[in-house]
């Protein structure tokens, strides 16, 4: 068996995923829309090896134990079952951006793992068989040997590792349909990266590890009286956002992205116990972005489960936006990311795994 390495970008959601119908399978309460973030990436190498007594997992240079190990092993178990193999695996995964800070590292991590592990297990996943567009009622079969293991199947596998990871499998602008069950809850590309030159200027306010991660947050969403209203209204927001992206309508896009992000944070803040991810600088960025848009700059904000603010603008406005946001007290750094491509396999994985021996 040979090592395989995959790369995946994290993604930023414009219509957010928050709360599950089924926590074990990450079947979301509502559909979501995102774009992949170019330049930020997880690189993961996997080899299955008959000599191993257990899965050996290294994340960012450290041996993974406890929950982190269990979560990766669970996905490897699924891949083993699909491929009909029993051997344990060596996994090495590295991010080129800080984890646990509102840049969804679990998304790129489980997307890269799903691709590298299926390939290493001989399933031969194909990311090229993908046709853009939503495929209603699609039921992909997954066979040992992998002939029908396509992009939808890979997205579903990634989803079961971390919900938002299913959106890091296809490229560009991506929609994850809530679906009716495991078979039809996966993500597809609604437009390629070159469709619209949006840029995410990520205002880094804190790189500390957050206290309550999204996995726990999802289980609390239903304790907020606002969650059912947020979920019931999701089809409307998805429709507006999809339409705005397809028509490159920044004004409509900005309104719906900000509304959706605040709806999610309203749910978080009214959950029991309440979740407050914002810091004072988070609100300062929100206000500066709204003021700049009122003066004509094509810019809007969205915030995940952390204090950092993703300030979305067109590439033409990126320099001005980065300067504006970078000058706000409490913003430590601004990272720019354009629209990223799909999860992909890369060559030369053997050099990485040598360091395990
Ligand atoms: C706020 O996909 O990280 O970023 O499935 O438990 O790993 P798990 O959750 P995760 O949740 C992402 C939540 C969010 C919104 C979004 O990305 O849609």
Describe this structure in words.
- This protein is an alpha+beta fold and 357 residues long.
- The chain folds into two domains: 202 residues, Ribosomal Protein S5, domain 2; 141 residues, GHMP kinase, C-terminal domain (Alpha-Beta Plaits).
- Helix content is 34%, strand content 22%.
- The protein contains ten helices and 16 strands.
- A six-stranded mixed β-sheet has the order 8-7-9-6-1-16.
- Helix 1 packs antiparallel against helix 3.
- The radius of gyration is 20 Å and the shape is globular.
- The two termini are 16 Å apart.
- The C terminus is likely disordered.
- It binds ligand DP6.
- The site of ligand DP6 has 17 residues, from helix 2 and helix 4.
Short description:
The protein is an alpha+beta fold and 357 residues long. It has 10 helices and 16 strands. The strands form 4 sheets. Strands 8-7-9-6-1-16 form a 6-stranded mixed beta sheet. A 4-stranded antiparallel beta sheet has the order 2-5-10-11.
Please describe the structure with a list of short key phrases separated by commas or semicolons:
single chain; 357 residues; alpha+beta; Ribosomal Protein S5, domain 2; Alpha-Beta Plaits; 2 domains; six-stranded mixed β-sheet; four-stranded antiparallel β-sheet; globular; binds ligand DP6
How is the topology of this model organized?
Blueprint: E1 4-8, E2 11-15, E3 20-22, E4 27-28, E5 32-36, E6 42-49, E7 56-59, E8 62-63, H1 66-83, E9 88-95, H2 105-120, H3 151-161, E10 173-176, E11 187-191, E12 198-204, H4 214-220, H5 227-232, H6 234-246, H7 250-269, H8 280-294, E13 299-302, E14 309-314, H9 318-326, E15 333-338, E16 344-346, H10 350-354
Parallel strand pairs: 7-9
Antiparallel strand pairs: 1-6, 1-16, 2-5, 3-4, 5-10, 6-9, 7-8, 10-11, 12-14, 12-15, 13-14
Helix pairs in contact: 1-2, 1-3, 2-3, 6-7
């Amino acid at each position: 068996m040979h090592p395989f390495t995959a790369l995946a970008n994290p993604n930023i959601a414009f219509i957010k995923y928050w709360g599950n119908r089924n926590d074990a399978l990450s079947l979301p309460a509502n559909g979501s829309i995102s774009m992949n973030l170019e330049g930020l990436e997880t690189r993961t190498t996997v080899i299955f090896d008959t000599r191993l007594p257990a899965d050996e997992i290294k994340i960012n240079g450290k041996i993974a134990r406890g929950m982190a190990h269990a979560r990766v092993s669970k996905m490897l178990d699924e891949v083993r079952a699909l491929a009909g193999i029993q051997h344990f695996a060596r996994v090495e995964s590295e991010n080129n951006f800080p984890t646990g800070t509102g840049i969804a590292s679990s998304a790129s991590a489980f997307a890269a793992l799903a691709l590298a592990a299926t390939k290493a297990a001989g399933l031969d996943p194909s990311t090229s068989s993908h046709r853009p567009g939503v495929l209603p009622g699609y039921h992909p079969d997954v066979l040992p040997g992998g002939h029908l293991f396509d992009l939808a199947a890979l997205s579903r596998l990634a989803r079961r590792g971390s919900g938002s990871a299913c959106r890091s499998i296809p490229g560009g602008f991506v929609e994850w349909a809530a679906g009716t069950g495991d078979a039809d809850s996966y993500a597809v590309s609604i437009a390629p990266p070159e469709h619209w030159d949006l840029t995410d200027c990520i205002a880094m306010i804190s790189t500390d590890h957050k206290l309550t991660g999204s996995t726990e947050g999802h289980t609390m969403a239903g304790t907020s009286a606002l969650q059912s209203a947020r979920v019931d209204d999701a089809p409307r927001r998805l429709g507006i956002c999809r339409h705005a992206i397809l028509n490159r309508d920044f004004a409509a896009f900005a309104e719906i992205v900000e509304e959706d992000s605040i709806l999610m944070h309203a749910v978080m803040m009214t959950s029991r116990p309440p979740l407050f991810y914002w810091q004072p600088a988070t609100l300062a960025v929100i206000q500066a972005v709204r003021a700049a848009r009122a003066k004509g700059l094509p810019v809007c904000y969205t915030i995940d489960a952390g204090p950092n603010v993703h300030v979305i603008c067109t590439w033409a406005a990126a320099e001005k936006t980065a300067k504006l946001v970078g000058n706000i007290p409490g913003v430590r750094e601004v990272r720019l990311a354009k629209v990223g491509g799909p999860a992909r396999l890369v060559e030369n994985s053997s050099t990485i795994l040598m360091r395990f021996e």
